[in-house]
Design brief:
Blueprint lengths: L2 E10 L3 H19 L1 E7 L4 H7 L5 H8 L3 E6 L14 H11 L4 E7 L12 H4 L3 E7 L7 E8 L5 E6 L4 H16 L4 E6 L5 H13 L7 E6 H10 L6 E4 L1 H13 L8 E5 L5 E5 L16 H14 L3 H16 L2 E2 L9 E2 L2 H14 L1
Parallel strand pairs: 1-2, 1-3, 3-12, 5-10, 8-9, 8-10, 13-14
Antiparallel strand pairs: 4-5, 4-11, 6-7, 11-12
Bound molecules: nicotinamide-adenine-dinucleotide (NAD).
Nicotinamide-adenine-dinucleotide (NAD) binds next to α4.
Length: 362
């Protein structure tokens, strides 16, 4: 009997509707090939939700997300809503969704596709073969720790304060996501911290080390964050899966992603313990090219592949989609953001059609 999944689609704003349409077409092909039945339900978020309901994350949308197996999000935001107060801006919808679904783990792969190697700003021999997954803690650490704020001291001077704090249970749950994710890859996990200076990192390191006993098949190493930043640029191929806290992860995941050089190709996943995960491209709503059939839909398609792998445990289907993306690039298909001489310039829809053709031939 076919496996059934309820998928919430959040097209959002800008290029969102154009790129999510391609991902849905891809999932329909996946459904046929792997005997999976996807039931899609669309909901509003971001600027389009503000226009329709006055709120960036309407209650109905949140309920639909909660009642699904996974959420596929495109992107939110645009010039039109930039002057609204911050709690009514499109971004508030995204932050609200992440916090309401308790998404504490953010997974960002940085994979160099051989066909796009020249898009990287680093030398070919440094980046060729890079395939890294950064697992970042998303709801704790210095962005949320108390006390925080700008206070006035007894001498009348202002003092800004943030607190980096992690409890054992917070370290435990992100650690488990990272060990499990590394099992779906090459079983090598590097935990990044600043344990030479920070007590919070000392607890992090000792707890991750303790957790490793439950994952004897995964090789665990530790690295200080300053060294990790250096090593990512010097010899990125030494990394497979990286796990780290919120602040370090914020910085390192951007650095790792840029090894690949192309924003239209980068997917991400945000996972919680029991609620559905949210799968979305790293890029924004690209209002400058919205509605012009110029967007690269591949980050959205690769986000759907992450949904299959990490949200629905359908690794073979995820492999199939990722291979299809490689194959369509191999045949020379390129959108404007990744075009190079001699390649075939396609719009968003035509790239989708070329990918579907490849997948159907597989
Ligand atoms: P952006 O990622 O939308 O665009 C940056 C540049 O990359 C633009 O030139 C754009 O045309 C290009 N680009 C992005 N995605 C592309 C794609 N798939 N194909 C081809 N080109 C692509 O970032 P920005 O311009 O800083 O932000 C635009 C809006 O998106 C803002 O309102 C911002 O708040 C929002 N935003 C949303 C998210 C999200 O939904 N997660 C993330 C970042 C920015």
């Amino acid at each position: 009997m076919a496996q059934k999944y309820r998928i919430t689609l959040l097209p959002g704003d800008g290029i969102g509707p154009e790129i999510i349409a391609v991902a849905v077409d891809v999932l329909k092909v996946v459904g046929q090939k792997f005997d999976i039945q996807f039931e899609f339900q669309e909901a509003l978020i971001g600027g389009s939700a503000i226009d329709a309901t006055g709120e960036p994350l309407p209650k109905d949308s949140l309920e639909i997300c909660r009642n699904s197996d996974a959420v596929l999000l495109a992107a939110i935001g645009g010039y039109k809503w930039d002057s609204l107060p911050s709690h009514l801006r499109p971004e508030a919808g995204l932050l609200g969704l992440r916090s309401q679904l308790g998404l504490f783990a953010n997974l960002r792969p940085a994979t160099i596709l051989p066909q796009l190697i020249d898009a990287s700003s680093l030398k070919r021999e440094v980046v060729e073969g890079v395939d890294i997954l950064v697992v970042r803690e998303l709801t704790g650490g210095i962005y949320f720790g108390q006390p925080k704020g700008i206070f006035t001291t007894e001498t009348g001077e202002k003092r800004g304060v943030n607190t980096m704090a992690y409890t054992e249970s917070e370290i435990d749950r992100i650690g488990r996501v990272a060990f499990e994710a590394s099992r779906k890859r090459n079983r090598k996990l590097c935990s990044v911290d600043k344990a030479n200076v920070l007590e919070v990192s000392q607890l992090w390191r000792s707890h991750i080390t303790q957790l490793a006993q439950e994952y004897p098949d995964v090789e665990l190493t530790h690295m200080y964050v300053d060294n990790a930043a250096m090593q990512l640029l010097r010899a990125p191929k030494q990394f497979d899966t990286i796990v780290t806290g919120n602040l370090f992860g914020d910085i390192l995941s951007d650095a790792a992603a840029m090894l690949t050089g192309s924003i239209g190709m980068l997917p991400s996943a945000s996972l919680g313990s029991s609620n559905p995960g949210v799968f979305e491209p790293v890029h924004g709503s690209a209002p400058d090219i919205a509605g012009q059939d110029k967007a690269n839909p591949l980050a959205q398609v690769l986000s759907a592949a992450m949904m299959l792998r990490y949200g629905l445990n359908q690794s073979a289907a995820a492999d199939y989609v990722e291979k299809g993306v490689l194959q369509v690039l191999q045949r020379g298909a390129r959108t404007g953001d990744i075009i190079s001489p001699g390649m075939n310039l396609l719009g968003c829809r035509a790239m989708g059609a070329a990918l579907i053709q490849v997948l159907e031939e597989e």
